[in-house]
Write a structure and sequence with these properties.
By secondary structure, the protein is of the alpha/beta class. 42% of the residues lie in helices and 22% in strands. Pfam families: ROK.
Length: 391
């Protein structure tokens, strides 16, 4: 019996996935560019775009006017109604976003909490948003699923939160709880791993195959690694926990914690304290730090910068990235004196590994973790659009 039909179907589905991924990554792209990227015939690309449009995953529109001779190629964009809910529970707030294909953060709300976000409050908040339906930010939207960026160790196989110490979560099946509560697929992963993925796909790390992403948030410091163009996960999905490393602190006067762990020395809470603040979102904290002329604030930034430089050089020596991306309050430490931090890293990194190494701030700013969480949700759809949700 011939299996030609099934082979052709697999080929078609694979081509559909390739085209949707291109549209998703590019955010808008012409048919001609898709043809050039895939190597498929123009007629084949046209048929694939038409099928994706019928599935409600892309829209095709008139091209922008150009000076080129000939008929311009139609432009393909992600369908705006297809979205994911992205959630980031933290010790000081729960942030929820509506994220569309193409990394469009259409709605984001940060709800401060007086104590670390509980599982019940996180699930309840998502359920409230879903139940609001057409009267809220989900009006006219098709929710593909819910993605959660968790500041802790998350088992890659099933999204079980093994340990999020700052939240007090241990062995929490957050994905399963959300699926039961809202009736759509859910997935969870470590927040910094998702930040690394988002910056690699849509941010400052686009086109970079080897990068280290280090996230500084209310819960501490986490890391994610892209190696050879792919996420480096480790045996259980726990790779990248740079915040629990203990970089050498050169002077005893610079060490403020008993543990000596990076996230206890380089600390958002310590920066808030020296500013006299009890709570602040990322932009507010950045403005306060960068505009301050207080010697105590500058001294604390200098102290944290020196310890961070040692930690980053350790990562550079072990992983040999071409780019280190800093997110959250770590991006502000970088911005406060980029030349000094770069010099500190270079001075402690093996010279050949330091030659082409650069440091940069996360380009996606506050949206980076939400975009990464949405990628968890979109991954099955991008892998097989024909099997995805219908209108």
């Amino acid at each position: 019996m011939s299996n030609t039909g099934s082979n052709l179907d697999r080929l078609r589905r694979g081509n559909l996935a390739a085209v949707l991924r291109i549209v998703h990554r590019a955010q808008q792209v012409s048919r001609a560019q898709i043809t050039a990227s895939t190597g498929l015939y123009r007629s084949t690309v046209g048929a694939l775009v038409t099928e994706l449009e019928s599935l409600g995953l892309v829209i095709e529109g008139e091209p922008e006017a150009t000076n080129r001779v000939g008929r311009p190629s139609p432009v393909v964009r992600p369908a705006p109604e297809v979205v994911a809910l992205a959630v980031n529970p933290e010790v000081d707030a729960i942030t929820v976003g509506v994220v569309g294909l193409g990394a469009r953060v259409e709605h984001r709300v940060r709800l401060p909490v007086s104590s670390p976000a509980t599982v019940e409050r996180t699930v309840g908040l998502v359920a409230e948003l879903m139940s609001a339906g057409d009267s809220g930010p989900l009006e006219g939207r098709r929710v593909v699923g819910v993605g959660v960026a968790v500041p802790g160790l998350v088992r890659a196989a099933d999204g079980l939160v093994r340990w999020a110490p700052h939240l007090g979560w241990r062995d929490v099946p957050i994905a399963a709880l959300l699926e039961e509560a809202v009736g759509v697929p859910a997935a969870a992963d470590n927040d910094a791993s998702l930040g690394a993925l988002a910056e690699h796909l849509f941010g400052v790390g686009q086109g970079v195959d080897d990068l280290v992403y280090v996230n500084g948030g209310p819960s501490g410091i986490g890391g994610g690694v892209i190696a050879g163009g792919r996420p480096l996960r480790g045996a259980g999905g726990y790779a990248g926990e740079i915040g629990h490393n203990r970089p050498g602190v050169r002077g005893s006067e610079d060490r403020l914690s008993d543990s000596g762990a990076l996230e206890d020395e380089v600390s958002r809470a310590r920066l808030l304290a020296v500013l006299g603040l009890t709570e602040a979102d990322e932009p507010t904290l950045a403005r306060a730090l960068l505009s301050s002329r207080d010697d105590a604030v500058r001294g604390e930034l200098d102290r944290q910068r020196a310890i961070l430089g040692t930690a980053l050089s350790n990562a550079a020596n072990v992983l040999n990235p071409s780019l280190i991306v800093l997110g959250g309050f770590l991006a502000t430490i970088l911005a406060s004196d980029p030349e000094r931090l770069a010099a500190l890293v270079a001075s402690q990194t093996l010279p050949p590994a330091a030659e082409d190494l650069r440091l940069d701030a996360a380009a996606l700013a506050e949206d980076r973790l939400l975009i990464g969480a949405a990628e968890l949700v979109f991954a099955p759809l991008l892998a097989d659009p024909a099997a995805g949700p219908r209108r």
